[in-house]
């Protein structure tokens, strides 16, 4: 892509994004991505009109983009509005990192402010709760809370210490990442089940999907590839 190339869509603005279908300016690329997102949702026909869908958001670039796409698809100005009902879940994973309680609380509040501002119901959990699922079944204690404000208390220090103790025994970085991923997935499924939701949207990109596919094959889990990748748009 040359620095002087015009956008293939509007043919007026200077192109800033190179894509398989051509070079786009920023505005036209956003329109293109939004259209492709809605088309992917509609083409699969896995999500029905009026169905509740749990949207897993970490506050990172990928999940923020996913939330933006859903926001646009639900807005009054959308040409064809998304018909499902999004409910947002934020799983706090800072318990697995060396982050102080003050910094963790500040980061969590910052992310929750963005999620709540999206206008959808927001639920909050933490990676520590994945270890408490069996205890929660016997004590009727929920592993998540609904976020009305961004000031949601952190898990008890003893639970964070227990999580870090378990993670410290895993020597391989690949195994550590896989273990955290499995904890997160189990927690998301548990919360979705408790909310009575059968569909979950996660923010995956081509790089993540490729890593998951190659990891499954390398570990002899090729039969699990379809479960690991779900449905995705090839465009």
From TrEMBL:
<dbReference type="GO" id="GO:0016783">
    <property type="term" value="F:sulfurtransferase activity"/>
</dbReference>
<dbReference type="InterPro" id="IPR019407">
    <property type="entry name" value="CTU2"/>
</dbReference>
<dbReference type="GO" id="GO:0002143">
    <property type="term" value="P:tRNA wobble position uridine thiolation"/>
</dbReference>
<dbReference type="GO" id="GO:0005829">
    <property type="term" value="C:cytosol"/>
</dbReference>
<keyword id="KW-0963">Cytoplasm</keyword>
<keyword id="KW-0819">tRNA processing</keyword>
<dbReference type="InterPro" id="IPR014729">
    <property type="entry name" value="Rossmann-like_a/b/a_fold"/>
</dbReference>
<dbReference type="GO" id="GO:0000049">
    <property type="term" value="F:tRNA binding"/>
</dbReference>
<protein>
    <recommendedName>
        <fullName>Cytoplasmic tRNA 2-thiolation protein 2</fullName>
    </recommendedName>
</protein>
